[in-house]
């Protein structure tokens, strides 16, 4: 019996997702891991509330989600997820898996721009809304 005061299921699920990463997740991790991109630390498969996010830069308050074809029919779920993460102070950017696999350089440039153009901590200056899903890795 564990004396931990938290639910271990999200952590176990995160570990499983890291161990079984998609090809696109592995490709993106090659540029995000070990602070390779702008010196920012990213973590993979991070539980935030009821969701597990693909990549998170906690200090920069940035979540990167990679979406396969199944996300085309899950717009409502993705919108609710994004709203929750935004309420926690995170920006969310999304890329299609095929963008990561076909244009990793463009995806990296988009992420660098998102890190550089961090919104003001003053919520009245934040334009709101989910970041557009990039079609060519240049969607900010």
Care to describe what's here?
There is one protein chain. A four-stranded mixed beta sheet has the order 1-2-3-4, with helices on both faces. Helix 3 links the parallel strand 3 and strand 4. It is an alpha+beta fold and 140 residues long. The protein has a single domain, classed as Endonuclease, Chain A (3-Layer(aba) Sandwich).
**E-strand count:** 4
How is the main sheet built?
Answer: 4 strands, mixed
CATH fold title: Endonuclease, Chain A
Strand order of the largest sheet: 1-2-3-4
Q: How much of the residues is beta strand, in percent? A: 15-25%
CATH architecture: 3-Layer(aba) Sandwich
**SSE topology string:** HHEEEHEHH
The helix tally amounts to 5
Write a concise synopsis of the structure shown.
This protein has 140 residues and is an alpha+beta fold.
Keywords:
Endonuclease, Chain A, four-stranded mixed β-sheet, 38% helix, globular
Topology:
Layout: H1 9-19, H2 23-32, E1 43-48, E2 51-57, E3 62-67, H3 75-87, E4 91-96, H4 97-102, H5 104-116
Parallel strand pairs: 3-4
Antiparallel strand pairs: 1-2, 2-3
